[in-house]
Prior knowledge:
alpha/beta, Purple Acid Phosphatase, chain A, domain 2, nine-stranded mixed β-sheet, 8 helices, 17 strands, about 20% helix, disordered N terminus
Amino acid sequence: xxxxxxxxxxxxxxxxxxxxxxxxxxxxxxxxxxxxxxxxxxxxxxxxxxxxxxxxxxxxxxxxxxxxxxxxxxxxxxxxxxxxxxxxxxxxxxxxxxxxxxxxxxxxxxxxxxxxxxxxxxxxxxxxxxxxxxxxxxxxxxxxxxxxxxxxxxxxxxxxxxxxxxxxxxxxxxxxxxxxxxxxxxxxxxxxxxxxxxxxxxxxxxxxxxxxxxxxxxxxxxxxxxxxxxxxxxxxxxxxxxxxxxxxxxxxxxxxxxxxxxxxxxxxxxxxxxxxxxxxxxxxxxxxxxxxxxxxxxxxxxxxxxxxxxxxxxxxxxxxxxxxxxxxxxxxxxxxxxxxxxxxxxxxxxxxxxxxxxxxxxxxxxxxxxxxxxxxxxxxxxxxxxxxxxxxxxxxxxxxxxxxxxxxxxxxxxxxxxxxxxxxxxxxxxxxxxxx
Length: 436
């Protein structure tokens, strides 16, 4: 998270130091001793804090629901209310945030994908790492799914789910943590930013190398035209020209909406009083356009992608306020996603959310795939238990990636596990979404 100013202490009046004569003084001492100085009075009160002390480190450690809590001055009634005041501004899109598959792989490639009657793509997040082979193992495993003799049935692209880079948003950081690990990956890569991609300072207060939030991300993913960025050095990788840090991809058989959930270490936001409503307003407008297109007979899969997970049972917690914001946008537009992808927690998790919407009973997969190479985080074993409107279906404390195949009637989602020691890959989980 970006470095912020901490509350200052009100300093008490400084005491003048008492001068003590040196033992080696050569001055003669008179017979009449000078009266002894009174010792300084002990401090009787502690410095005044900007906030009064609380019983717990954070005042939201309570069973009281938010609506029944007293608001903490300058903080609010919840951790999410406080975190929302620490966000960075969202860069405005460079152009219309909608891009097509042809913008990524060219008109000929997009036409071939359309003619093949399906589209395949990879997805995973939390990749940037040094000193370990795991990220390379995952990249190599994904690369095996490409067939130069049959490009139409190969993955069309890799959707990175954020945290491309950790703590070094410079050309050097991108070279080491992105271009080198993917130097043999054949496909184009598009992305949404994660919290570390947007931060200006790392955990110890030192700069990450960028003076503007998401500056390095935009240099590598949001170029004016497709090109090889300077950070790639001698590695030839033609990067795409995304319209911004949030976007929609209009592709054959699937629409993907990528959202930026900002720099929070724990919680994600797509809008707030501090960062504004521009992204959410665009989101609602885009969903309404998709709803209109469906009414005219064009039904494609609808995927939402954001870095912070709406549901999570380990590594990082869920972002309920962000989920409420997304649900509100869906309700305004009258449409729900078929699949939701996230990362942030360094593991794999799959949930099913049961939603009654528009007279239909929907079962929507919500998947966390932050297993692209960064140190894996422990996760609760999934057992299918249903809590509220979601059930926890599958989990893995380990590494791997998603392969998603969309047709005119359904989407199949595969998760492939990659062994951290050998790089061997094996099927781990899959689910199918039928379009209604």
